[in-house]
Amino acid sequence: MSMIEFHDVQKYYGQFHALKDINLEIDEGETVVLIGPSGSGKSTLVRTVNGLESIQNGSLIVNNQDLSSPKTDVNRLRTDVGMVFQHFYLYANKTVLENVMLAPRIVSHIPEDENRQRALSLLKMVGLESKAANMPSQISGGQQQRVAIARSLAMRPKLLLFDEPTSALDPEMIDDVLQVIKKITSDSAMTSLIVTHEMGFAKEVANRVIFMDDGRVVEDDDKTEFFRQPKTERAQQFLSKIITH
User: Fold this and answer.
1) CA-to-CA distance for 172 and 226, rounded, in angstroms?
2) How far apart are CA 56 and CA 12, in angstroms?
3) Order of strands across the sheet with 16-27?
4) Which domains does the chain have, with CATH numbers?
5) Distance between CA atoms of residues 206 and 78, nearest Å
6) Torsional class of 80: left (φ above 0), alpha (ψ -120 to 50), beta (otherwise)
7) Phi, psi of 198 (to 5 degrees)
8) Contact in structure between 60 and 9 (CB atoms under 8 Å)
9) Which residues are CB-neighbours of 23 under 8 A, at least 6 positions away?
10) Per the record's keyword annotation, is NADP included, yes or no (predicted)?
11) In terms of pTM, does the model score above 0.85?
12) CA–CA gap between residue 87 and residue 199 (Å, rounded)
């Protein structure tokens, strides 16, 4: 069953055509990695999935809700769609634990004890239970990103979006975050859509790889086939540069 469906989707910023003729289906439980050069439309595509960016033409169905319809309650949709950004956007005036507990408290009205236990278990999963009482400024960037992942999971989303989750991190912090994402994608039936420049990570975690360039889906294939022998010359060029630099 499809979790995401793009049908002839077009996205413009003024005269700039950011997404061109996007046709994609992503099934429930799939882990799909989006790769491609900077400016190819990857982040824009991901941001349309939870309504952070609107589309101008075509239709986009997410969890059986039509984002191209003005009748769709985007805020309701977002309760089922978690998102992890390049930057962490934690509340600086709240503890790590409070950051994770906030959305379930406000949106879902979960009983406080249940909410606290759920938040602590998520922090334990990302290796940060001992930092629950810390303020975000007291932990590293990599740890803040792991808190942001725990916060996204706190609402029990059906779909989790990652927009270059390691691009703002120091190199030595990247692996801890990638290991957490690998654990999430391997241990749950959640659907994940991940924008990344980490090719080794993409090889490990993906079911499918989507290669984008100039606002288009150039290639969409099983990860083994894609990394062994891309079908398009543009994808071959991209991979050869990634591998040799």
Assistant:
1) 28
2) 7
3) 16-27, 2-13, 57-62, 65-66
4) 2-243 (3.40.50.300)
5) 23
6) alpha
7) -90, 100
8) yes
9) 6, 7, 8, 9, 217
10) no
11) yes
12) 20
Joined together, the tokens standing for residue 5 give 């469906």
pLDDT tens series, the chain, 245 aa: 899 999 999 999 999 999 999 999 999 999 999 999 999 999 999 999 999 999 999 999 999 999 988 899 998 899 999 999 988 899 999 999 999 999 999 999 999 999 999 999 999 999 999 999 999 999 999 999 999 999 999 999 999 999 999 988 888 889 999 999 999 988 778 899 999 999 989 998 999 999 999 999 999 999 999 999 999 999 999 999 875 43
Rg (the chain; Cα; Å): 18
Q: State the angle between helix axes of 171-187 and 141-153 in degrees (0 to 180), rounded to the nearest 10.
A: 20
